[in-house]
Amino acid sequence: MWILRWLGIIHRATDEYEVELKGMRRMARKRHVVESVALVLGLLCMAGGAAAQEVEGALDTAASMDDAARRSQANIDQTVDEARSLERQYSAIIKEIDGLEVYNALLQKQIDSQNQEMADLNRSIDQVSVIERQVTPLMIKMIEALDQFVELDVPFLLEERRQRVAFLRTLLERSEVTVAEKFRRLLEAYEIENDYGRTIESFKGSLEVDGASREVDFLRIGRTALLYQTVDAEIFGMWDNAKREWVSLPAEYRNQIRAGIRMAHKQIAPNLLLLPIAAPENVE
Are both 6 and 62 inside the same structural domain? Predict the structure, then answer.
């Protein structure tokens, strides 16, 4: 009977150990096992040889179960860790996918915009040849008009202005120069001619006076008047565009011409000049 009691005690210790193993209370379980083993060893000291062998077998079984429980718990812990790692990876991938979807949507909008720009550029390229065929005849007419204007205008800086027209003719024949550059230079020449009408200028030159070539100071007041005065200030006159010739002026204009030349050189402040200006013609 006492042997059965010992075995009952061993079985109760084993059952309690299994219950505590399921509750994940490892430290308490180990302490209980130690106490149970101590109790069993005490009983073994009191028991005979056959009972001791049975008790030892039961202890071996309990130890095997303990090892199996430890291995199972280790496997469970590893599985939980792997599951949590996979969960974190899944969350990171989901966030990355969301970001890529937003980025792809933005890229698609940019691609659509670039496709529209390419279509517009292709239409513009298709129209370039048409524009060139229309602009080139226009530039030829503008150069011819500029040439005629220079020849019919007041003859100031005549050589410089004629060279500018000749340069434009040569530029128009050059194939390596773009149509846009040719048109820009043509508009620049027109702008220069337009500026002449808003400025006052004095420059030196030579002029045939009384059958002899004389060094003179020219005075240009816009396109309204072109006057001259010899270096010694003895002879002075103006250009008569209606007659297309130089005419002499009376002595009363000597000081006015001299003052105009000094104004053009910014030697004196601008002031009113009394000069013989031809009245504008009526245009019908």
Answer: yes
Average pLDDT across the chain, whole number: 80
Boundary of a domain, candidates 154, 170, 196: 196
Domain carrying residue 50: 2-69
Q: What is the pLDDT of residues 75-96, one digit of tens each?
A: 888 888 888 888 888 888 888 8
Give the chain's domain count: 3
106 domain residue, yes or no = no
- Report d(CA 55, CA 42) in Å as an integer: 11
Model pLDDT, residue 2: 40
Residue 83 within a domain: no
Whether residue 192 sits in one domain with residue 150: yes
What the block records as the tokens of 216 is 């003179």
Read out DSSP for the chain? -HHHHHHHHHHHHHHHHHHHHHTT-HHHHHHHHHHHHHHHHHHHHHS-HHHHHHHHHHHHHHHHHHHHHHHHHHHHHHHHHHHHHHHHHHHHHHHHHHHHHHHHHHHHHHHHHHHHHHHHHHHHHHHHHHHHHHHHHHHHHHHHHHHHHHHHS--SSHHHHHHHHHHHHHHHH-TTS-HHHHHHHHHHHHHHHHHHTT-EEEEEEEEEETTEEEEEEEEEETTTEEEEEETTSS-EEEEETTTTEEEE--GGGHHHHHHHHHHHTTSS---------PPPPP--
- Kindly report whether the global pTM for this prediction surpasses the value 0.70: no
Same domain, yes or no: 187 and 246? no
Q: Is there a domain that residue 144 lies in?
A: yes
**Do residues 181 and 204 share a domain?**
no
**Structural domain includes residue 123:** no
pLDDT 10s digits, 239-254: 998 889 999 999 899 9
